[in-house]
Here is the input.
Amino acid sequence: MGIFSKIKDGLTKTRQGFSGKMENLFSGLKKIDEETYEELEEILISADIGVDVSIKVVDELRQEVKENKVKDPEEVYGLLKNKLVEVMGSTPEPLNKDTSDLTVIMVVGVNGGGKTTTVGKLAKNLKDNGDRVLLAAADTFRAAAIEQLSAWGDRIGVDVIKHQESADPAAVVYDAIAAAKARNADYLICDTAGRLHTKKNLMQELSKIRRVISREIPDAPQEVLLVLDATTGQNAIKQAEVFLEATSVTGIVLTKLDGTAKGGVVIATREELGIPVKYIGVGEREDDLQNFDPEEFVEALFETS
Ligand SMILES: Nc1nc2c(ncn2[C@@H]2O[C@H](COP(=O)(O)OP(=O)(O)O)[C@@H](O)[C@H]2O)c(=O)[nH]1
Ligand SMILES: [Mg+2]
Here is the structure.
């Protein structure tokens, strides 16, 4: 299956409500009036694009249509798509990569959001690309989490550095960096725990891991990916805010897009958090992580069949 049809497939539930309503609104439309804009705003909000972002997009569209004296609804439709792409930063944001040294990627987010799965899928992507990858099982809270990552490592043929359950996550990461250096790895990806019982705890754990990493490699971690569950819609953005107070983040991964009609949350994320979406998860298997491309995403979202 091609990448585009995979994204389109992954967005099936979101598209069901969205693209049909869009088509209904625009097909056979003779002219654009205030009612059209109101309906448009409603459709955007109902796809979980977020109230503020939806209003902003429609306001800008209205302005542009007026200034350029656009009459053709078809043309307005095109302008709308462009606006949505723009809101997401227009171009794909690649993973930060250190060309000379080891690139360390920390993966953070609440429990159940899809961190461990994303670590596995990302490792597979990078390995397929010819990079040497190592994983660190720094979610030591439950033995099951360590086993889950080990199972991913076995499946995709990537080594996992791990300690016992309840071990110090920073110590796991310390060992993993030593191993990654010794093996000349290109990437070390660190899974972490996402317990939110107190923000202070989480903050302390994440800062300790970061401290260990930066002591060993001054520019690292080059990438901190925050994993958010798209099925929670706008709540994913609220969740993200808690994490952003605990640690700095360089990229967002939105998971479980395949299981939700709330895929519009992807569009709101960049605008509301000011951080680019770098990957989207469209399934549980190893090939179900996609590099995020705003233009491709919008095209897929508007597909009606
Ligand atoms: N459908 C679907 N399920 C996913 C996706 N990403 C993760 N999951 C599932 O979500 C559940 C929690 O994922 P996990 O990686 O263990 O989350 P963690 O607690 O953050 O490490 C697992 O059952 C995963 O298979 C995705 O993109 N699509
Ligand atoms: Mg996990």
In short: The chain has a mean pLDDT of 94. The beta strands are 103-108, 133-138, 160-161, 187-192, 223-229, 251-255, 277-281, 289-291.
